[in-house]
Amino acid sequence: MILYQNAYSQHCRRVVALLQETGLACEHRHVAMDKGEHRGHAYLEINPNHQVPTLIDGEVKIHESNAILRYLCTKHELENWYPSKPPERAMVDQWLDWGTSRLGPAVVDIVLNKVFLGDKGDPAAIARGEQKMQELAPILAAGLDGKDFLCGARPTIADLAVGSSIAQLAFAHALPTEPAITAWQHRLAAIEGVARSMPG
Fold first, then answer.
1. Topology of the domain comprising 86-191
2. pLDDT(22) > 90
3. Which of 2, 18, 63, 35 is nearest to 164 (CA)?
4. pLDDT tens digits, 184-199
């Protein structure tokens, strides 16, 4: 397997965390997004969406990070990370989809415009993202109430996905302050694969 990735992308780190934690063999290829490699002809041949990550496994090519997580878990029967029983799987899928559709855009608004675009950042987008996080952080905290992880006592790929997005907010000094989220982030950081996925 080959993973095209960049450690500053939360979408890449969630995949790297799973690979590291489970010991799945994979060649990691860095995509220098700061140099525009993701928009170069060579990478567009790999991923026309000019995004990271991309996983290549033989003839299989997958672009979206949560799809990659599901694929790896299904192919390698990683039941602990992506349970097969419908009620448990639905809970994982629910948080994966929430992370993509609700949390993800707010995180991008804040971090992209506050950190990576520098002086070219859009203040209106930052304000929009910060306002949205005022709604979303309590929802996440409530979802963690009485649980160590989003779906129970064990971490799943939902924690890797949502957790990587929350951790991304640290770049903008915008981490949620709810105690349940802070404690959960500490538990995630203690997972070796998660720790190894962070930029050096």
1. Glutathione S-transferase Yfyf (Class Pi); Chain A, domain 2 (1.20.1050)
2. yes
3. 18
4. 999 999 999 999 999 8
